[in-house]
User: What shape does this take?
Amino acid sequence: MAFPRQRLRRLRQSEPLRRMVRETALAASDLIYPMFVTTGRDRREEIGSMPGQYRWSVDLLIKEVMDVKSLGIPAVILFGIPDRKDDRGTSAFDPNGIVQQAIRSIKDQVPDILVITDVCIDEYTSHGHCGIVKDGRIVNDETLECLREMARTHAAAGADMVAPSDMMDGRVGAIREELDRHGFTETPIMAYAAKYASCLYAPFREAADSSPTFGDRRSYQMDVANAREALREIDADLEEGADIVMVKPALPFLDIIAAARGRVDVPIAAYQVSGEYSMIKAAARAGWLDESRAMMESLLSIKRAGADIILTYFAKEAACALRAHE
Assistant: This one.
């Protein structure tokens, strides 16, 4: 039997050849860097479960954002850590809240970077849930009023995009209506459309001090076993006016990213969440794998599955690695 004419190794012989036929490309411009902002001045607090990640006071946040921009990363997404919490998360929609202050400072000093804001009250509530609690239940429609105000105050402070992550039904439509009514018709919405009730958020909850004080979030975040439901969530958010839809987490749900890519024409974002980041960091520190290669393989897999945009705590490191290989 003759040796096959098709020798697939022919195109793998050298790095220039491999690069020329590479099917998936990752760029710094694909990335969004998540950042935690807190009160006070001159504060840079490392997050124990997320090596290399910090809580920043606004003055130091600005310097970090400048560094992010210099690496070619086009956007940051802000998560606030307030100095007070209550059962309604009222500091989330305070016009002078911590995120609103950070937005104004960034847009004043680093105007060319996109500022995206997380719209969810869990970091601001005393109970740690993403909605208002009544009789032990997270109520949907009353929570929408908080989200409306939160998104509006972010837009008024200068946010370039808002990103509701709460998973309340109807929140995209409510936010779109609120923004339009107040003249923010050009402010896009990136909806956390398929957000699963994952264990991989644990390091984030330490970082933001947002763990629920009772129960869990399974009554509003998605069941990790469901795929068809994710597509229904995506359809619903698009019908309500979402401009970008997101899948979160990323790596355990590459099938959902791929299914969404085959279904919709809008940009798709994927969030490589804190647990995904911390697992790679921990394994690398133990000497079990090469951190840089694991980082790049994971990000490429997300892009290959169909994501146009990747939110990742590796954004700075990935941008540096990409620049080194230019």
Summary: The chain has one domain: 25-324. The chain has a mean pLDDT of 96. The chain is about 40% helix and 20% strand. Residues 25-324 form a domain with the TIM Barrel fold (CATH 3.20.20.70).
